[in-house]
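Morning. Coffee machine broken again, so started the prediction first thing and wrote up yesterday's gels while waiting. Chain of 471 residues, entered below exactly as on the submission form.
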Amino acid sequence: MTDICENAQYFLESTRSVLADMFGIESEVVRPVRECASIQTAHRFVISIFYTGTVFGEYILALPEETALRILGIEPDDPSGGREQARAEICDAFSEALNMIVGDSITELHKTFSKLTFTAPRILFGEPRYPQVKTAYGVIGCEHGEIECHFYLDGMRLDLATSYEEALASLLEVNKKLKEANRSLQEQQAQLVHSEKMASVGMLAAGVAHEINNPLMYVDANFTTLVDYLEVIQTMFALYDSLANSITNFDDAMRGPFDQLRELDEQEDISYVMEDTRVLLSQTHEGIERIKSIVIGLKEFSHADSSGYARADLNDVIENTLQLVWNQVKYHCEVVKELCPAAEVMCNKGEVGQVLVNLIMNAAQAIPEKGLISLTSEKREDEVVVSVADNGVGMAPEQLKKIFNPFYTTKPVGKGTGLGLSISYGIMQRHGGSIEVESAPGKGTRFSLHFPKDAPASAEAAFTGLDSAIG
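Came back before lunch.
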Protein backbone atom coordinates (compact mmCIF):
# COMPACT_ATOMS: atom_id res chain seq x y z
CA MET A 1 0.00 0.00 0.00
CA THR A 2 1.36 3.46 -0.95
CA ASP A 3 2.00 6.23 1.59
CA ILE A 4 -1.10 8.10 0.48
CA CYS A 5 -3.31 5.01 0.87
CA GLU A 6 -1.83 4.16 4.26
CA ASN A 7 -2.54 7.66 5.55
CA ALA A 8 -6.02 7.62 4.01
CA GLN A 9 -6.67 4.30 5.77
CA TYR A 10 -5.56 5.79 9.09
CA PHE A 11 -7.82 8.82 8.45
CA LEU A 12 -10.77 6.51 7.74
CA GLU A 13 -10.26 4.44 10.92
CA SER A 14 -9.82 7.60 13.03
CA THR A 15 -13.10 8.88 11.59
CA ARG A 16 -14.91 5.70 12.62
CA SER A 17 -13.45 5.89 16.13
CA VAL A 18 -14.39 9.55 16.69
CA LEU A 19 -17.92 9.03 15.31
CA ALA A 20 -18.38 6.24 17.84
CA ASP A 21 -16.91 8.22 20.75
CA MET A 22 -18.65 11.55 20.06
CA PHE A 23 -21.99 10.50 18.60
CA GLY A 24 -22.34 6.82 19.54
CA ILE A 25 -22.45 5.95 15.82
CA GLU A 26 -21.20 2.48 14.84
CA SER A 27 -19.93 2.22 11.26
CA GLU A 28 -18.31 -0.18 8.85
CA VAL A 29 -16.14 0.16 5.76
CA VAL A 30 -18.35 -0.15 2.68
CA ARG A 31 -15.70 0.87 0.14
CA PRO A 32 -12.03 0.15 0.96
CA VAL A 33 -9.39 2.84 0.48
CA ARG A 34 -8.11 3.20 -3.07
CA GLU A 35 -6.03 5.70 -5.01
CA CYS A 36 -7.50 7.97 -7.69
CA ALA A 37 -6.49 10.88 -9.90
CA SER A 38 -8.63 13.60 -8.29
CA ILE A 39 -11.20 14.34 -5.62
CA GLN A 40 -14.73 13.67 -6.82
CA THR A 41 -17.87 13.64 -4.71
CA ALA A 42 -21.57 14.13 -5.30
CA HIS A 43 -22.29 15.03 -1.67
CA ARG A 44 -23.34 18.58 -0.80
CA PHE A 45 -21.82 18.88 2.67
CA VAL A 46 -18.01 18.97 2.68
CA ILE A 47 -15.73 19.83 5.61
CA SER A 48 -11.94 19.78 5.36
CA ILE A 49 -8.71 20.72 7.13
CA PHE A 50 -5.72 21.88 5.10
CA TYR A 51 -2.19 20.94 6.22
CA THR A 52 1.16 22.21 5.04
CA GLY A 53 4.86 21.68 5.66
CA THR A 54 7.34 19.67 3.61
CA VAL A 55 4.16 18.42 1.90
CA PHE A 56 0.69 19.87 1.70
CA GLY A 57 -2.81 18.55 1.23
CA GLU A 58 -6.22 18.13 2.89
CA TYR A 59 -8.25 15.82 5.06
CA ILE A 60 -11.82 15.90 3.69
CA LEU A 61 -15.14 14.47 4.89
CA ALA A 62 -18.01 14.51 2.37
CA LEU A 63 -21.53 13.35 3.19
CA PRO A 64 -25.17 14.19 2.47
CA GLU A 65 -26.50 17.06 4.60
CA GLU A 66 -29.38 14.78 5.64
CA THR A 67 -26.92 12.20 6.97
CA ALA A 68 -25.11 14.86 9.01
CA LEU A 69 -28.43 16.01 10.51
CA ARG A 70 -29.49 12.47 11.45
CA ILE A 71 -26.13 11.80 13.10
CA LEU A 72 -26.88 14.79 15.36
CA GLY A 73 -30.41 13.51 16.01
CA ILE A 74 -32.05 16.25 13.91
CA GLU A 75 -34.95 15.33 11.63
CA PRO A 76 -34.03 16.60 8.11
CA ASP A 77 -37.63 17.19 7.03
CA ASP A 78 -38.50 19.39 10.00
CA PRO A 79 -35.44 20.72 11.86
CA SER A 80 -36.34 22.64 15.00
CA GLY A 81 -35.02 26.19 14.84
CA GLY A 82 -34.99 26.28 11.03
CA ARG A 83 -32.53 25.30 8.34
CA GLU A 84 -29.87 27.87 9.22
CA GLN A 85 -29.86 26.85 12.87
CA ALA A 86 -29.55 23.19 11.84
CA ARG A 87 -26.60 24.01 9.57
CA ALA A 88 -24.93 25.95 12.36
CA GLU A 89 -25.20 22.88 14.62
CA ILE A 90 -23.73 20.70 11.85
CA CYS A 91 -20.79 23.07 11.45
CA ASP A 92 -20.02 23.18 15.17
CA ALA A 93 -20.28 19.43 15.74
CA PHE A 94 -18.38 18.27 12.66
CA SER A 95 -15.68 20.93 13.09
CA GLU A 96 -14.97 19.55 16.56
CA ALA A 97 -15.08 15.99 15.23
CA LEU A 98 -12.69 16.72 12.33
CA ASN A 99 -10.26 18.50 14.65
CA MET A 100 -10.09 15.33 16.78
CA ILE A 101 -9.77 13.09 13.70
CA VAL A 102 -6.96 15.14 12.16
CA GLY A 103 -5.28 15.46 15.55
CA ASP A 104 -4.88 11.67 15.47
CA SER A 105 -4.16 11.38 11.75
CA ILE A 106 -1.53 14.12 11.57
CA THR A 107 0.51 12.20 14.14
CA GLU A 108 0.67 9.24 11.76
CA LEU A 109 1.51 11.50 8.81
CA HIS A 110 4.29 13.15 10.80
CA LYS A 111 6.11 9.81 11.00
CA THR A 112 6.90 10.25 7.29
CA PHE A 113 6.84 14.04 6.76
CA SER A 114 8.13 16.70 9.12
CA LYS A 115 7.20 20.32 9.84
CA LEU A 116 3.45 19.97 9.37
CA THR A 117 0.82 22.44 10.51
CA PHE A 118 -2.91 22.50 9.79
CA THR A 119 -5.62 25.13 9.48
CA ALA A 120 -9.07 25.51 11.01
CA PRO A 121 -11.85 23.47 9.34
CA ARG A 122 -13.32 24.79 6.09
CA ILE A 123 -17.00 24.07 5.39
CA LEU A 124 -18.92 24.00 2.11
CA PHE A 125 -22.62 23.46 1.44
CA GLY A 126 -22.75 22.90 -2.30
CA GLU A 127 -20.80 21.33 -5.12
CA PRO A 128 -17.02 21.34 -4.46
CA ARG A 129 -14.41 21.66 -7.21
CA TYR A 130 -10.83 20.41 -6.85
CA PRO A 131 -7.81 20.39 -9.18
CA GLN A 132 -6.14 17.20 -10.38
CA VAL A 133 -4.25 16.00 -7.31
CA LYS A 134 -2.99 12.65 -6.10
CA THR A 135 -5.80 11.35 -3.88
CA ALA A 136 -6.90 8.31 -1.90
CA TYR A 137 -10.34 7.79 -0.42
CA GLY A 138 -12.58 5.24 1.26
CA VAL A 139 -16.23 5.15 2.30
CA ILE A 140 -17.76 4.17 5.63
CA GLY A 141 -21.43 3.44 6.19
CA CYS A 142 -23.66 3.78 9.23
CA GLU A 143 -27.37 3.58 9.92
CA HIS A 144 -27.81 7.19 8.77
CA GLY A 145 -25.95 6.96 5.45
CA GLU A 146 -22.46 6.97 3.92
CA ILE A 147 -19.47 9.20 4.69
CA GLU A 148 -16.58 9.67 2.24
CA CYS A 149 -13.06 10.13 3.66
CA HIS A 150 -10.73 11.82 1.14
CA PHE A 151 -7.02 12.46 1.66
CA TYR A 152 -4.49 14.00 -0.70
CA LEU A 153 -0.91 15.22 -0.48
CA ASP A 154 1.58 16.96 -2.72
CA GLY A 155 5.28 17.61 -2.22
CA MET A 156 6.76 21.05 -1.53
CA ARG A 157 9.64 22.67 0.31
CA LEU A 158 9.21 25.36 2.96
CA ASP A 159 11.77 26.92 5.25
CA LEU A 160 9.95 26.91 8.59
CA ALA A 161 11.14 28.10 11.96
CA THR A 162 13.68 25.95 13.77
CA SER A 163 11.36 25.78 16.72
CA TYR A 164 8.80 23.89 14.65
CA GLU A 165 9.41 20.57 16.42
CA GLU A 166 8.76 22.22 19.79
CA ALA A 167 5.60 23.88 18.46
CA LEU A 168 4.30 20.58 17.09
CA ALA A 169 5.10 18.77 20.34
CA SER A 170 3.21 21.48 22.22
CA LEU A 171 0.27 21.18 19.82
CA LEU A 172 0.13 17.42 20.25
CA GLU A 173 0.27 17.81 24.02
CA VAL A 174 -2.60 20.31 23.93
CA ASN A 175 -4.58 17.93 21.74
CA LYS A 176 -4.00 15.14 24.25
CA LYS A 177 -5.13 17.33 27.14
CA LEU A 178 -8.21 18.41 25.21
CA LYS A 179 -9.15 14.76 24.69
CA GLU A 180 -8.67 14.03 28.39
CA ALA A 181 -10.72 17.10 29.33
CA ASN A 182 -13.47 16.03 26.93
CA ARG A 183 -13.60 12.56 28.46
CA SER A 184 -13.65 14.04 31.96
CA LEU A 185 -16.56 16.32 31.02
CA GLN A 186 -18.44 13.38 29.53
CA GLU A 187 -17.91 11.36 32.71
CA GLN A 188 -19.07 14.25 34.90
CA GLN A 189 -22.13 14.74 32.69
CA ALA A 190 -22.89 11.02 32.89
CA GLN A 191 -22.46 11.05 36.68
CA LEU A 192 -24.78 14.02 37.11
CA VAL A 193 -27.41 12.53 34.80
CA HIS A 194 -27.18 9.24 36.67
CA SER A 195 -27.27 10.91 40.10
CA GLU A 196 -30.42 12.85 39.20
CA LYS A 197 -32.02 9.71 37.81
CA MET A 198 -31.05 7.61 40.83
CA ALA A 199 -32.34 10.30 43.20
CA SER A 200 -35.76 10.03 41.57
CA VAL A 201 -35.64 6.24 41.60
CA GLY A 202 -34.49 6.33 45.23
CA MET A 203 -37.45 8.51 46.24
CA LEU A 204 -39.81 6.13 44.45
CA ALA A 205 -38.19 3.09 46.11
CA ALA A 206 -38.41 4.73 49.54
CA GLY A 207 -42.09 5.52 49.00
CA VAL A 208 -42.88 2.00 47.81
CA ALA A 209 -40.98 0.48 50.76
CA HIS A 210 -42.88 2.70 53.21
CA GLU A 211 -46.28 1.90 51.70
CA ILE A 212 -45.54 -1.85 51.77
CA ASN A 213 -43.99 -1.79 55.23
CA ASN A 214 -46.99 -0.27 57.02
CA PRO A 215 -49.57 -2.96 56.13
CA LEU A 216 -46.83 -5.59 56.39
CA MET A 217 -46.39 -4.74 60.07
CA TYR A 218 -50.10 -5.51 60.68
CA VAL A 219 -49.91 -8.73 58.68
CA ASP A 220 -46.77 -9.88 60.52
CA ALA A 221 -48.17 -9.06 63.97
CA ASN A 222 -51.56 -10.64 63.23
CA PHE A 223 -49.89 -13.68 61.76
CA THR A 224 -47.95 -14.29 64.98
CA THR A 225 -51.22 -14.10 66.92
CA LEU A 226 -52.90 -16.44 64.43
CA VAL A 227 -50.18 -19.06 64.97
CA ASP A 228 -50.76 -18.84 68.73
CA TYR A 229 -54.54 -19.21 68.22
CA LEU A 230 -53.95 -22.29 66.09
CA GLU A 231 -52.05 -23.88 68.96
CA VAL A 232 -55.01 -23.20 71.27
CA ILE A 233 -57.50 -24.63 68.76
CA GLN A 234 -55.42 -27.77 68.25
CA THR A 235 -55.16 -28.27 72.02
CA MET A 236 -58.92 -27.88 72.38
CA PHE A 237 -59.57 -30.37 69.54
CA ALA A 238 -57.27 -32.87 71.19
CA LEU A 239 -59.11 -32.52 74.51
CA TYR A 240 -62.54 -32.83 72.82
CA ASP A 241 -61.36 -35.93 71.00
CA SER A 242 -60.03 -37.45 74.23
CA LEU A 243 -63.28 -36.67 76.02
CA ALA A 244 -65.36 -38.17 73.22
CA ASN A 245 -63.33 -41.36 73.27
CA SER A 246 -63.73 -41.71 77.05
CA ILE A 247 -67.54 -41.57 76.96
CA THR A 248 -69.12 -44.97 76.42
CA ASN A 249 -72.73 -44.55 77.48
CA PHE A 250 -74.96 -41.90 75.89
CA ASP A 251 -78.53 -41.00 76.49
CA ASP A 252 -80.75 -40.25 73.51
CA ALA A 253 -80.17 -36.47 73.83
CA MET A 254 -76.39 -36.83 73.47
CA ARG A 255 -76.34 -39.56 70.82
CA GLY A 256 -77.41 -37.29 67.93
CA PRO A 257 -74.81 -34.48 68.37
CA PHE A 258 -72.06 -37.04 69.06
CA ASP A 259 -72.80 -38.94 65.85
CA GLN A 260 -72.83 -35.66 63.91
CA LEU A 261 -69.39 -34.76 65.25
CA ARG A 262 -68.00 -38.17 64.29
CA GLU A 263 -69.50 -37.94 60.81
CA LEU A 264 -68.09 -34.45 60.25
CA ASP A 265 -64.67 -35.60 61.47
CA GLU A 266 -64.68 -38.47 58.97
CA GLN A 267 -65.97 -36.36 56.06
CA GLU A 268 -63.62 -33.38 56.49
CA ASP A 269 -60.65 -35.29 57.94
CA ILE A 270 -60.12 -32.75 60.71
CA SER A 271 -56.68 -34.16 61.60
CA TYR A 272 -55.49 -33.52 58.02
CA VAL A 273 -57.06 -30.04 58.01
CA MET A 274 -55.20 -29.09 61.19
CA GLU A 275 -51.88 -30.47 59.91
CA ASP A 276 -52.28 -28.79 56.50
CA THR A 277 -53.12 -25.52 58.25
CA ARG A 278 -49.74 -25.74 59.98
CA VAL A 279 -48.02 -26.20 56.60
CA LEU A 280 -49.94 -23.29 55.04
CA LEU A 281 -49.02 -21.03 57.93
CA SER A 282 -45.36 -22.04 57.60
CA GLN A 283 -45.36 -21.21 53.88
CA THR A 284 -47.15 -17.92 54.56
CA HIS A 285 -44.48 -17.05 57.11
CA GLU A 286 -41.79 -17.66 54.47
CA GLY A 287 -43.65 -15.31 52.12
CA ILE A 288 -43.86 -12.58 54.76
CA GLU A 289 -40.12 -12.91 55.46
CA ARG A 290 -39.46 -12.64 51.73
CA ILE A 291 -41.50 -9.42 51.50
CA LYS A 292 -39.67 -8.03 54.54
CA SER A 293 -36.28 -8.73 52.92
CA ILE A 294 -37.42 -6.99 49.69
CA VAL A 295 -38.54 -3.95 51.70
CA ILE A 296 -35.15 -3.85 53.45
CA GLY A 297 -33.44 -4.04 50.04
CA LEU A 298 -35.57 -1.16 48.71
CA LYS A 299 -34.75 0.93 51.77
CA GLU A 300 -31.02 0.34 51.34
CA PHE A 301 -31.29 1.15 47.64
CA SER A 302 -33.18 4.38 48.34
CA HIS A 303 -30.44 5.54 50.74
CA ALA A 304 -27.59 4.84 48.31
CA ASP A 305 -26.41 8.47 48.21
CA SER A 306 -26.47 9.01 51.98
CA SER A 307 -25.12 5.75 53.34
CA GLY A 308 -21.48 6.88 53.23
CA TYR A 309 -18.47 4.68 53.81
CA ALA A 310 -18.63 1.93 56.43
CA ARG A 311 -17.26 -1.55 56.90
CA ALA A 312 -19.66 -3.95 55.19
CA ASP A 313 -19.80 -7.57 54.07
CA LEU A 314 -19.93 -7.64 50.27
CA ASN A 315 -21.76 -10.97 50.46
CA ASP A 316 -24.71 -9.17 52.09
CA VAL A 317 -24.69 -6.59 49.31
CA ILE A 318 -24.69 -9.38 46.72
CA GLU A 319 -27.64 -11.13 48.40
CA ASN A 320 -29.69 -7.91 48.72
CA THR A 321 -28.98 -6.90 45.13
CA LEU A 322 -29.96 -10.33 43.83
CA GLN A 323 -33.30 -10.05 45.62
CA LEU A 324 -33.97 -6.70 43.94
CA VAL A 325 -33.30 -7.99 40.40
CA TRP A 326 -34.51 -11.56 40.90
CA ASN A 327 -37.74 -11.06 38.98
CA GLN A 328 -35.74 -10.00 35.89
CA VAL A 329 -33.39 -12.97 36.14
CA LYS A 330 -35.24 -16.01 37.44
CA TYR A 331 -37.19 -16.93 34.31
CA HIS A 332 -34.26 -17.63 32.00
CA CYS A 333 -31.10 -17.66 34.14
CA GLU A 334 -29.71 -20.08 36.68
CA VAL A 335 -27.75 -18.19 39.33
CA VAL A 336 -24.83 -19.92 41.06
CA LYS A 337 -23.18 -18.30 44.09
CA GLU A 338 -19.71 -19.12 45.43
CA LEU A 339 -19.18 -16.67 48.26
CA CYS A 340 -16.25 -16.71 50.64
CA PRO A 341 -17.03 -16.13 54.34
CA ALA A 342 -16.89 -12.58 55.76
CA ALA A 343 -15.92 -10.59 52.64
CA GLU A 344 -15.67 -7.29 54.56
CA VAL A 345 -14.34 -4.03 53.10
CA MET A 346 -14.74 -0.28 53.63
CA CYS A 347 -17.32 0.78 51.06
CA ASN A 348 -20.52 2.62 50.27
CA LYS A 349 -23.07 -0.21 50.24
CA GLY A 350 -25.56 1.74 48.16
CA GLU A 351 -23.06 2.52 45.41
CA VAL A 352 -21.68 -1.01 45.35
CA GLY A 353 -25.27 -2.24 45.05
CA GLN A 354 -25.75 0.01 42.01
CA VAL A 355 -22.64 -1.50 40.38
CA LEU A 356 -23.91 -5.03 41.01
CA VAL A 357 -27.39 -4.18 39.67
CA ASN A 358 -25.76 -2.95 36.44
CA LEU A 359 -23.55 -6.01 36.07
CA ILE A 360 -26.23 -8.62 36.92
CA MET A 361 -28.80 -6.99 34.61
CA ASN A 362 -26.20 -6.77 31.82
CA ALA A 363 -25.40 -10.46 32.33
CA ALA A 364 -29.10 -11.41 32.16
CA GLN A 365 -29.64 -9.34 29.02
CA ALA A 366 -26.58 -10.91 27.36
CA ILE A 367 -28.23 -14.36 27.63
CA PRO A 368 -30.77 -14.70 24.79
CA GLU A 369 -32.67 -17.77 26.03
CA LYS A 370 -31.44 -19.98 28.88
CA GLY A 371 -28.11 -19.49 30.59
CA LEU A 372 -25.98 -19.28 33.72
CA ILE A 373 -24.92 -16.33 35.87
CA SER A 374 -22.13 -16.90 38.39
CA LEU A 375 -21.61 -14.63 41.42
CA THR A 376 -18.39 -15.13 43.38
CA SER A 377 -16.46 -13.38 46.14
CA GLU A 378 -12.84 -14.09 47.00
CA LYS A 379 -10.58 -12.76 49.75
CA ARG A 380 -7.01 -11.98 48.82
CA GLU A 381 -4.14 -10.50 50.78
CA ASP A 382 -5.06 -6.82 50.46
CA GLU A 383 -8.34 -6.93 48.57
CA VAL A 384 -11.66 -8.65 48.04
CA VAL A 385 -12.65 -9.55 44.48
CA VAL A 386 -16.31 -9.87 43.45
CA SER A 387 -17.02 -11.39 40.03
CA VAL A 388 -20.16 -11.48 37.88
CA ALA A 389 -19.89 -13.93 34.98
CA ASP A 390 -22.31 -15.16 32.32
CA ASN A 391 -22.27 -17.60 29.41
CA GLY A 392 -24.07 -15.19 27.07
CA VAL A 393 -23.18 -13.76 23.68
CA GLY A 394 -19.92 -12.09 24.77
CA MET A 395 -18.24 -9.05 23.19
CA ALA A 396 -15.74 -8.45 20.42
CA PRO A 397 -12.32 -6.85 21.16
CA GLU A 398 -13.31 -3.56 19.50
CA GLN A 399 -16.36 -3.35 21.80
CA LEU A 400 -14.29 -4.02 24.92
CA LYS A 401 -12.20 -0.93 24.20
CA LYS A 402 -15.27 1.32 24.47
CA ILE A 403 -17.60 -0.22 27.05
CA PHE A 404 -16.58 2.19 29.83
CA ASN A 405 -17.07 5.27 27.64
CA PRO A 406 -20.09 7.38 28.66
CA PHE A 407 -23.17 6.79 26.48
CA TYR A 408 -21.62 3.81 24.64
CA THR A 409 -23.85 0.72 24.58
CA THR A 410 -23.88 -2.61 22.75
CA LYS A 411 -27.62 -2.99 23.32
CA PRO A 412 -30.31 -2.27 20.69
CA VAL A 413 -31.75 1.23 20.47
CA GLY A 414 -34.06 1.89 23.40
CA LYS A 415 -32.62 -0.93 25.53
CA GLY A 416 -29.80 0.96 27.26
CA THR A 417 -28.45 4.45 27.99
CA GLY A 418 -24.75 3.59 27.86
CA LEU A 419 -24.27 5.01 31.38
CA GLY A 420 -24.25 1.86 33.54
CA LEU A 421 -20.66 0.71 33.03
CA SER A 422 -19.30 4.27 32.90
CA ILE A 423 -20.91 5.01 36.27
CA SER A 424 -19.69 1.67 37.65
CA TYR A 425 -16.15 2.51 36.54
CA GLY A 426 -16.32 5.85 38.37
CA ILE A 427 -17.72 4.24 41.53
CA MET A 428 -14.90 1.69 41.63
CA GLN A 429 -12.33 4.47 41.19
CA ARG A 430 -13.84 6.39 44.12
CA HIS A 431 -13.48 3.24 46.19
CA GLY A 432 -9.79 3.06 45.34
CA GLY A 433 -10.46 -0.15 43.42
CA SER A 434 -10.81 -1.22 39.82
CA ILE A 435 -13.11 -3.05 37.43
CA GLU A 436 -11.80 -5.56 34.90
CA VAL A 437 -13.54 -7.39 32.07
CA GLU A 438 -12.85 -10.56 30.11
CA SER A 439 -15.03 -11.48 27.15
CA ALA A 440 -15.07 -13.19 23.79
CA PRO A 441 -17.86 -13.60 21.22
CA GLY A 442 -19.95 -16.68 22.00
CA LYS A 443 -18.04 -17.42 25.24
CA GLY A 444 -19.66 -15.04 27.69
CA THR A 445 -18.31 -12.22 29.85
CA ARG A 446 -16.75 -11.89 33.30
CA PHE A 447 -16.55 -8.60 35.23
CA SER A 448 -14.25 -8.54 38.27
CA LEU A 449 -14.54 -5.84 40.94
CA HIS A 450 -11.38 -5.32 43.01
CA PHE A 451 -12.02 -3.70 46.40
CA PRO A 452 -9.18 -2.72 48.75
CA LYS A 453 -9.96 -3.98 52.25
CA ASP A 454 -9.45 -0.46 53.62
CA ALA A 455 -10.74 2.41 51.47
CA PRO A 456 -8.11 5.16 51.04
CA ALA A 457 -8.79 8.58 52.52
CA SER A 458 -8.89 10.05 49.03
CA ALA A 459 -11.87 7.85 48.16
CA GLU A 460 -13.85 9.10 51.16
CA ALA A 461 -12.95 12.69 50.27
CA ALA A 462 -13.99 12.17 46.66
CA PHE A 463 -17.32 10.71 47.74
CA THR A 464 -17.96 13.60 50.16
CA GLY A 465 -17.06 16.14 47.49
CA LEU A 466 -19.41 14.53 44.97
CA ASP A 467 -22.24 14.53 47.50
CA SER A 468 -21.69 18.27 48.14
CA ALA A 469 -21.61 19.02 44.41
CA ILE A 470 -24.81 17.11 43.70
CA GLY A 471 -26.63 18.23 46.84
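Confidence is low (pLDDT under 50) at residues 156-163, 458-471. Going to sketch it on the whiteboard this afternoon.
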